[in-house]
């Protein structure tokens, strides 16, 4: 698995404006029983994960003028991937938010568990 390519596909889901394409990408990246965790929420399964991403998209990307961007420092080993990201204004400027994800993959290379950390 090419970790950098994987992260690029992952970040693209959060920036995807087309709902059907977003659902298809969720199904490509996450295992059927995969999960996405933050400090305040859990989403289990494709529908819940797609709804979580749609909510973030509507608030920040579609309606807020931001895009998610992967930062340098992708690391991967033993079926895990760790990377950093930033929520950047499309017209330039400072990041609105930064964070990291620690992802555990299944044997097929799909996300089993995605732990998202947002920096204060």
CATH architecture tag: Roll
Secondary structure category: alpha+beta
What fraction, in percent, of the residue positions are helical? 25-40%
What's the count of strands? 7
Number of helices: 3
How much is the average pLDDT? 96
CATH class equals: Alpha Beta
Q: Which residue ranges are poorly predicted, with pLDDT under 50 across at least 5 consecutive positions? A: none
Order of helices and strands: HHEEHEEEEE
Shape: globular
Strand share of the residues? 35-45%
Distance between the termini: 31 Å
Largest sheet: 7 strands, mixed
Q: Domain count, please report it.
A: 1
Rounded to an integer in angstroms, the radius of gyration calculated over CA atoms is 13 Å
CATH topology, which one? Answer: Nuclear Transport Factor 2, Chain: A
What keywords describe this structure?
120 residues, seven-stranded mixed β-sheet, alpha+beta, single chain, Nuclear Transport Factor 2, Chain: A, 34% helix
Short structural description:
This protein has 120 residues and is α+β, with helices and mostly antiparallel strands. It has one domain: Nuclear Transport Factor 2, Chain: A. The protein is built from three helices and seven strands.
């Amino acid at each position: 698995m090419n970790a950098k390519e994987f992260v690029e596909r992952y970040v693209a889901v959060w920036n995807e404006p087309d709902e059907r394409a977003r659902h298809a990408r969720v199904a490509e990246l996450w295992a059927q029983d995969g999960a996405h965790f933050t400090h305040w929420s859990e989403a289990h399964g494709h529908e819940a994960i797609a709804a979580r991403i749609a909510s973030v998209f509507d608030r920040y990307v579609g309606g807020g003028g931001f895009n998610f961007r992967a930062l340098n420092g992708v690391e991967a080993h033993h079926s895990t991937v760790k990377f950093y990201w930033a929520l950047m204004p499309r017209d330039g400027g400072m990041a609105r938010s930064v964070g990291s994800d620690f992802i555990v993959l299944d044997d097929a290379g799909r996300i089993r568990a995605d732990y998202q950390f947002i920096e204060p």
